[in-house]
């Protein structure tokens, strides 16, 4: 918030005067961050082949990781409950439900096309989400140097890890 106030050339407390409380202000910041995230996801999906559910799933995952890498503060606010109660924002709740449903549809479509190994789609969905979120979180928390992954290798590593996951859920 201090940085946003500085950029707007206002006092650090000025943004708080426009919201009834800190939670409302942080929810508004998270809603804007989520809107920007959705734009990135939609652009990535628009570039993926519409008939290839796994390519769309891959595009979604890479867009997620890339957005989180370029927007660490926004990722932090939309992905954790440290700054406000996420359930207090109907917009965020709805948007998150839509993203989960979108991911479920992609995986269900891949399953219907006979591309996936027999498995519970819910487990695949959660595993995919954990992988993508976990990768983004590892980057934000600065873990990759300990794994001998240089900063200029992180995006390529994300692609390889997502491809490895997709290879693990698809039929041979």
Describe what this molecule looks like in 3D.
The chain has 172 residues and is mainly α. It has a single domain (34-169), classed as Tetracycline Repressor, domain 2. The protein has 7 helices and no strands. The protein has helices at 2-7, 22-47, 53-70, 72-79, 90-112, 121-140, 154-169. It is globular. The mean pLDDT is 88.
CATH superfamily, please?
Answer: Tetracycline Repressor, domain 2
**Percentage of residues in helical conformation:** 55-70%
Strand % is under 5%
CATH architectural arrangement: Orthogonal Bundle
The low-confidence parts are none
Query: How is the CATH topology named?
Result: Tetracycline Repressor, domain 2
Shape: globular
What is the gyration radius calculated from CA atoms? 18 Å
Order of helices and strands: HHHHHHH
Blueprint (SSEs and pairs):
Layout: H1 2-7, H2 22-47, H3 53-70, H4 72-79, H5 90-112, H6 121-140, H7 154-169
Record keyword descriptors for this entry:
single chain, 7 helices, 172 residues, mainly alpha, globular, Tetracycline Repressor, domain 2
Short description:
The protein has 172 residues and is mainly α. It has one domain (34-169): Orthogonal Bundle (Tetracycline Repressor, domain 2). It has helices at 2-7, 22-47, 53-70, 72-79, 90-112, 121-140, 154-169.
């Amino acid at each position: 918030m201090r940085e946003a106030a500085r950029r707007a050339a206002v006092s650090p407390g000025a943004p708080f005067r426009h919201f009834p409380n800190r939670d409302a202000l942080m929810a508004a910041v998270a809603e804007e961050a989520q809107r920007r995230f959705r734009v990135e996801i939609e652009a990535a999906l628009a570039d993926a082949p519409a008939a290839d559910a796994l390519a769309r799933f891959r595009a979604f995952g890479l867009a997620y990781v890339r957005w989180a890498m370029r927007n660490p503060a926004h990722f932090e606010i939309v992905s954790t409950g440290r700054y406000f109660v996420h359930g207090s924002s109907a917009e965020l709740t709805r948007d998150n439900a839509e993203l989960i449903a979108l991911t479920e549809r992609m995986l269900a479509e891949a399953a219907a096309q006979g591309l996936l190994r027999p498995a519970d789609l819910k487990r695949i969905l959660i595993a995919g989400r954990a992988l993508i979120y976990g990768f983004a979180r590892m980057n934000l928390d600065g873990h990759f140097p300990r794994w001998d992954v240089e900063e200029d290798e992180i995006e390529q590593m994300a692609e390889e890890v997502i491809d490895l996951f997709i290879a693990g859920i698809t039929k041979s």
